[in-house]
Structures are given as structure tokens and as C-alpha cells.
């Protein structure tokens, strides 16, 4: 037991009231921004933030169409988990005072190692639709891909974004003459490349859409009328702008699954790819490759590039994880064809990882749809700012100053 003489001496810190002149520099009271879109986007620092804003601002059926995947959504979950589990391996003491994010995609320049992916029914997410996305693509210097199921014609998109590198995604229909006409229209509109999607012989079981009763265009049921009261701006924009029309067909009234099963050809084979190669002189890309063996087959049949993709998890559940499949595809055909990656990309760091593992670049789809729903064209612009900052920061922290210097040594799959 210690005596009072042995107890430590307690010294109290002097207290005083702060002077007004000392408080003034600490106050950061900004005037409220009168622009609601700018206020919303100012709170978004990641793709996940944009997704949450989109969820609140759009009807449930529309958000779920974008956000959902097939059946138990395992393919999408596993694709994102693969990105989350990988490990970066930085190299220190490197000069990263200047970061060069530019690269080459399909023989042309891209300021960043990604392109905007094809998405169907884009004007359903926001009335500005594909033109808004394509204009942003042009401003930041990356390609944009219009889907066969897009809601803007190739000619109208060319007029809206004349300085953007434009690609066209193609589904081959049962009616080959109609498919040939679509390719002709895409060429006349100045599209540089055709991207044939091959993983959709039938529509996947997208259960969120089935539960929501989603139709194109949205039907005015008791449920949707109730939803109008919760999302009046979205409904006002849909009902007071041009009706939903598609890049490659005049009209449709029914579910997405019914449209796919009616229009698309389940008898598609390599012979059809050979036929398309004979009718198209530009770069020919095959999207939906999920094995190295299939990559070899399509490249031998004339493809200039392959996209390792399971359609965002929206077709076959429990499909191969694209990021894990990527190295084997690069090893098989990387010296003969470009290899790009799609599915599960939610950050610029994901893009850097894919490029390090051998991809020429990535396709970004859901992320820009979240941004479009969150803030229209300005939302997509905000997404581009987020992705650019994430790519640059990740490269700098890896000790890499140029996209071309990314290698498999910078990433370890776990």
C-alpha cells in the first residue's frame, strides 16, 4: 500500500473560453445548394453511394431490373466477391508523379481502360437514356456501346454524340434478313465495331422482374399507380417524353423474358459467326465467352476480340466467374485477339485489377445505370469522376505510372 507521499501528482490542464476570432476559422457553414441534383450527387463518393440514391429515386421494378440477376443471383454475387477477395501487390519507391490512364481499345484510343457497356431499355431508367451516357463517354474519351435492345436508334445516337467512339451490340434474330438490316443501319450511323452477344440463346430467369411483373413499357396496374405517388418525377418524365422505342425493333408489349424468347435465335452456331464476319469489315467482338476453349473457337472463326462475361449474372446462375476465367483466356488467345472483361465491376480498382490480369480494358454497365438513375447525365459525369479518381489512385499506390505497365505481378487472386 502506497502512502500519500508516493501517489502521482495530478496536473490539471488550464481551461478558458475560446475567443470569437479563434472560432471563426473553424466554422464551415455553407449555404444550402438550391440544385437538388447537385446536392444528391455531392453525397456520392462511390458506385455504392450512387446505387443507394438510385434505389430511392426509381420505382422498385425499374431498380430491380438494373440491380438484379438470374435465379439466386449467385453468378453476380460470386463475380463481385472475386474482386473483393483479390490482393494487390504494390511496388514502392516508384515515380508516380504523373499517371497515364490512356490505352488502346479495339484499335482506337481510350483515355481510360474501360468502355460503357450495352444496356437494354436505358430510357426506362432515366428519360435522358443512351444519348446522355454517350455524350459523357465522348467528353471523357472512352467508347460507348449501343444495345440492340437500347431505346435510341443508331442514327439518333450518332446525331446526339457525333464525337464519341461508338460500338454496336448485336443479338442475332431468327430472321437473318432483319439482323443484316440492323448491321447495315449500325454501319451507316458510324459505329466502329459490332459486338455479338452469344450467351443468350434463351432468357435467364430474372426472378425480381417476374415478382415485380415488369413489362416494356411499364403497365399502369394497381401496383404501379401506387408507385407513382412515391416516385412522381420518374413517372412524369416517362409519361411526358417520347414512348419507349428500341434501337432495332419498332415496338413491343410484354415482359423482357418473352421478348428475348420471341426474337433471339437459340440455334446460333459458329457458322453464324462466320456469316457475320463475312458481312462486317470492322472489328468484330464476341461478348459472353466463359471458357478458354470457347475463346479459341470464336477467334478461329474470325473474332477480333472477346469479352469474358457472364452477362452480369443475368443469364446462367452459377456461371464461371469472369475475373477467375480471365487469365486462362488471355493465355489462350491474348496474342491473337483483344480480351476485355465484363461483370461485377463496381470501382476503378476493379478495372485496374482486370487490366493487371491481362484484359485490354473493361465494360462498365450497371454502375453507369445507377448513376443515370441518380442524376441523369450529370450523374454519369459524376460516376466518370469517381472511376477516374479510383483508377489513378490505385495505380499510384501500386507504384504504376502507366496502364501498359500493369502486370499479373500486381495482383493475386485468392
Q: What share of the residues lie within helices?
A: 40-55%
Task: Please write the string of helix (H) and strand (E) elements.
Answer: HHHHHEEEEHHEHEHEHHHHHEHEHEHEHE
The chain-level mean pLDDT equals 91
Low-confidence runs (pLDDT<50, min 5 residues)? none
| Biggest β-sheet strands, sense, barrel | 8 strands, parallel
| Beta-strand proportion | 5-15%
As a whole number of angstroms, the C-alpha radius of gyration is: 25 Å
Domain FMN hydroxy acid dehydrogenase: 39-414
InterPro entries: Aldolase_TIM, Alpha-hydoxy_acid_DH_FMN, FMN-dep_DH, FMN_HAD, FMN_hydac_DH_AS
Keywords: Flavoprotein, FMN, Oxidoreductase
Pfam families: FMN_dh (PF01070)
Core attributes:
single chain; 414 residues; alpha/beta; eight-stranded parallel β-sheet; two-stranded antiparallel ribbon; 12 strands
Amino acid at each position: 500500500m502506497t502512502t500519500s507521499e508516493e501517489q502521482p501528482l495530478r496536473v490539471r490542464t488550464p481551461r478558458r473560453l475560446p475567443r470569437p476570432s479563434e472560432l471563426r476559422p473553424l466554422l464551415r457553414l455553407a449555404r444550402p445548394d438550391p440544385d437538388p441534383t447537385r446536392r444528391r450527387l455531392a453525397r456520392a463518393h462511390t458506385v455504392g453511394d450512387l446505387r443507394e440514391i438510385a434505389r430511392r429515386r426509381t420505382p422498385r421494378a425499374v431498380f430491380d431490373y438494373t440491380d438484379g440477376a438470374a435465379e439466386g443471383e449467385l453468378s453476380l454475387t460470386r463475380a463481385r466477391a472475386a474482386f473483393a477477395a483479390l490482393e494487390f501487390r504494390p511496388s514502392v519507391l516508384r515515380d508516380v508523379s504523373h499517371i497515364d490512364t490512356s490505352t488502346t481499345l479495339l484499335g482506337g484510343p481510350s483515355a481510360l481502360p474501360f468502355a460503357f457497356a450495352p444496356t437494354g431499355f436505358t430510357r426506362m431508367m432515366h428519360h435522358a437514356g443512351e444519348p446522355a451516357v454517350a455524350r459523357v463517354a465522348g467528353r471523357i474519351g472512352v467508347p460507348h456501346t449501343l444495345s440492340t435492345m437500347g431505346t435510341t436508334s443508331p442514327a439518333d445516337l450518332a446525331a446526339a454524340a457525333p464525337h464519341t467512339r461508338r460500338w454496336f451490340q448485336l443479338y442475332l434474330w431468327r430472321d437473318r434478313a432483319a439482323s443484316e438490316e440492323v448491321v447495315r443501319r449500325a454501319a451507316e450511323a458510324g459505329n466502329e465495331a459490332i459486338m455479338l452477344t452469344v450467351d443468350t440463346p434463351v432468357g435467364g430467369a430474372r426472378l425480381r422482374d417476374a415478382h415485380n411483373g415488369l413489362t416494356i413499357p411499364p403497365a399502369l396496374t394497381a401496383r404501379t399507380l401506387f408507385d407513382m405517388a412515391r416516385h412522381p418525377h420518374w413517372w412524369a418524365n416517362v409519361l411526358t417524353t417520347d414512348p419507349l422505342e428500341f434501337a432495332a425493333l419498332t415496338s413491343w408489349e410484354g415482359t423482357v423474358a418473352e421478348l428475348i424468347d420471341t426474337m433471339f435465335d437459340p440455334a446460333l452456331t459458329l457458322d453464324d459467326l462466320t456469316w457475320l464476319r463475312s458481312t462486317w469489315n470492322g472489328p468484330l467482338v464476341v461478348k459472353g465467352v466463359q471458357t478458354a476453349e470457347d475463346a479459341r473457337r470464336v477467334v478461329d472463326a474470325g473474332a477480333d476480340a472477346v469479352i469474358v462475361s457472364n452477362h452480369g449474372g443475368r443469364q446462367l446462375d452459377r456461371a464461371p466467374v469472369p475475373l477467375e476465367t480471365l487469365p486462362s483466356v488471355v493465355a489462350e488467345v491474348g496474342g491473337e485477339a483483344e480480351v476485355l472483361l465484363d461483370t461485377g465491376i463496381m470501382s476503378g480498382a476493379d478495372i485496374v485489377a482486370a487490366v493487371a490480369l491481362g484484359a485490354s480494358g473493361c465494360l462498365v454497365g450497371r454502375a453507369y445505370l445507377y448513376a443515370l438513375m441518380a442524376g441523369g447525365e450529370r450523374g454519369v459525369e459524376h460516376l466518370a469522376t469517381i472511376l477516374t479518381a479510383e483508377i489513378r489512385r490505385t495505380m499510384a499506390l501500386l507504384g504504376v505510372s502507366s496502364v501498359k505497365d500493369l502486370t499479373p505481378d500486381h495482383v493475386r487472386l485468392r
